[in-house]
Design brief:
Blueprint: E1 7-12, E2 27-28, E3 31-32, H1 33-41, E4 49-53, H2 57-65, H3 85-95, E5 101-104, H4 114-126, E6 131-137, E7 146-148, E8 154-156, E9 174-184, H5 185-191, E10 200-203, H6 215-231
Parallel strand pairs: 1-4, 1-5, 6-10
Antiparallel strand pairs: 2-3, 5-9, 6-9, 7-8
């Protein structure tokens, strides 16, 4: 709860995954990937209830072993490669109404902390924003990106300048890192999205913004965890 407002968190985790099979429960440093999100979310000061939305028996069993609530099984038609996330959340909110804020925590962002979760919730609340989404500084500034026209000539992707100059003179550019999505529940139900002109950003460092989609990402995650452990 935050300032008298109730907060529902959902961890969506369907069974299908083509790039990294069973990635939601793949073992990482002695525990399933799902556990990394559950353990940090449990330390949140603001989350009142946390649930899993899944269609998969094995994922549900792992969730139960972690003490994570699974109030229902997600219908198969809401667990396909093409199912929009907002449809999954509409289904969830129809089953679990009455919360003021909705928080979505993806399993594939395992290095976000409870501080990140609460920071994003707090920013949404205190800025009186309809939604707040976590972002991180882009590693490659898109002002340097180019497209090729029909004659093979380089064209700026954004802006109109052909010569950019020093990197330090460019504006900071942020990318959505997928770690934390927060919205007033009524706002989400009305807009059907977290992304509107009113959405604010919560900045996270790059070392906590990794998105797991490949074996290489898992290796990077392990490196970052060990690096963080040794620095503490």
């Amino acid at each position: 709860m935050i300032d008298g407002r109730t907060v529902l968190a959902v961890i969506p985790a369907r069974g299908g995954s083509k790039t990294l099979p069973r990635k939601n429960i793949i073992p990482v440093m002695g525990k399933p990937l799902l556990a990394w999100t559950v353990e940090e979310a449990r330390q949140s000061r603001h989350i009142d209830r946390m649930v899993l939305s899944s269609d998969d028996d094995e994922i549900i069993d792992v969730a139960h072993s972690l003490g994570l609530e699974v109030p229902f099984r997600r219908p198969a038609e809401l667990a396909t490669d093409t199912t929009p996330t907002n449809e999954v959340l509409f289904h969830l909110l129809s089953k679990i109404p009455g919360y003021d804020y909705l928080v979505v925590l993806q399993v594939t962002s395992p290095l976000r902390t409870a501080e990140d979760i609460d920071g994003c919730i707090g920013k949404c609340m205190h800025r009186k924003a309809g939604a707040c989404v976590s972002v991180s500084l882009a590693e490659k500034n898109p002002y340097y990106f180019r497209t090729l026209d029909s004659k093979g000539r380089l064209q700026p992707l954004i802006g109109g300048a052909y010569h950019i100059g020093r990197r330090q003179d460019l504006p900071d550019v942020y990318m959505i890192n997928g770690a934390v999505f927060v919205s007033q529940t009524a706002f989400f139900l009305e807009k059907s999205t977290f992304f509107t002109p009113e959405t604010v950003g919560y900045i996270m460092p790059q070392e906590r913004s990794i998105d797991i989609d490949s074996e290489k990402d898992l290796a990077v995650m392990e490196y970052l965890v060990l690096k963080r452990t040794h620095s503490e």
